[in-house]
Amino acid sequence: MGKLAMQANIDEDIRMLALEVLVSILEKKPQLVRKNVGFLQLLTKISLQMMLVVDDDRDEWNAKYSNSVDESPCFDAGQVALNRMAENINTKKFLPILMPNVEQLFGQQQWTCRHAAIIAVAQTCEQLADQPQYKDQIIGRIVNFGKDPHPRVRYAAIHCLGIMCSDFGKKFVNKWHNQVLESFLHGMDDKANPRLQANAAICVVNLAEKVPTKLLRPNLEKLLEKLFSVLNQPNIKKYVLENALTAIAEIAENAEKEFKKFYGTFTPPLMNILQNATAQDCLDLRLEALRCLTYIGVAVGAEMFSKEALSAMEMSLPIIKCDGVEVVRILNSWRRIFRTMQDDAAKYLPAVAEIVFKLASQEVKMKAGEWDSDDENVEYNERDNPVNATRVEEKVSAINLLYAMAKYSHGAFSPLIEQTAQILIPLIEHPVDDQIQEAAAEAMPGLIECIWDAFKKTRRLPLI
């Protein structure tokens, strides 16, 4: 089986099937092979060799963005196999087998070898996190590969550094944030490879999630200048713009009030996208612009955000009715607007409530005959009910929005309290899904706060 998987001149499907058999043996009968060092060495070599099967068609690679490092089935099979090995073999046994192979590939002239080695590290970051004898020496190597001559290797290095930010945590970020950020900035400069640009931008999110504001502050201006230059780059691909907007949103959340001096720089292009990018294929871009704008609004506060917040509400109300729209992103953006603007957003309560009531009332439990086992959107929840996962997410987001509308309206939501309670109370008393029940229960205090605020103003309790 190992010989089949190692032979590059036979059908890829056969090679992948052979690899799958070997990995399945490890998973199903670990006691047979965990002590067999020869078997583990063979499986590691096969996995890494499969990861060498990648095309170098630069135009095709840059044509679209994907969360996958490469679309090659063989490459994917190899990296997944390494991940499965890491999950099933003791770290102290697995890393001494893997790392010498990685080091050997690092030194090869062929770019696919360096690319495979870096992604192998990315796949095993969780195991490396607690092994300083390997982690400390590997980080510097990955940083240096951020300036490799080949763009696919640079992409792999940036991808790996992004995963390290998440898996290695704050100690890693505190020590290496400057070097990591420089790699990301260098990647965002690569106009010839938009997929690399987009990856560098999205990896900024991983860094901004972990880095303390005091360490981000000295780099804030140059990072935002770089992202602004990406936003204004001529003929830029939409996927690069979307990832840049996601990065800006995360930076705003981290920087908070520090973002105020950049507000006037970023809101005009965001409002321009929201208003003018009306083509159907720009729908995701508009949603990301709305999301980014509302994160900035939360960071800078109501006084500065007021004009753009109300304009964004006006423009986004029709968007939620578009075919194929990702409703949750709009609901969450509206929640941030209501939380920030409070009384100033009160005039939108009736129009938004009409939409949100429908989403909060929709049925999520699937009935017999409405779905089959091939429906990827249907899953069994904690209560063993078959539910539509998209509707569950929409319903939870709608309930969270109702909470924000009620809590931050200072009583203006009180005419809508009765209808809201009629939706929420049955979700608590007769639960179908735990997430929905929890969201409904957490929303109830917002209704009570709204009733109290209304009473303080009128000295009359709402009729409910």
List its traits.
single chain; 464 residues; mainly alpha; two-stranded antiparallel ribbon
Description of the structure:
This protein has helices at 2-6, 12-28, 30-33, 37-50, 58-63, 73-88, 91-106, 111-123, 125-128, 132-145, 151-168, 170-188, 194-210, 213-231, 238-255, 263-276, 283-300, 302-319, 327-341, 349-361, 389-407, 417-429, 434-458; strands at residues 378-380, 386-388. The protein contains 23 helices and 2 strands. It has 464 residues and is mainly α. A two-stranded antiparallel sheet has the order 1-2. A hairpin with a 5-residue loop joins β1 (378-380) and β2. The longest helix is centred in the last third of the chain and has 25 residues, at 434-458. The protein is 72% helix and 1% strand. α19 (327-341) packs parallel to α21 (389-407).
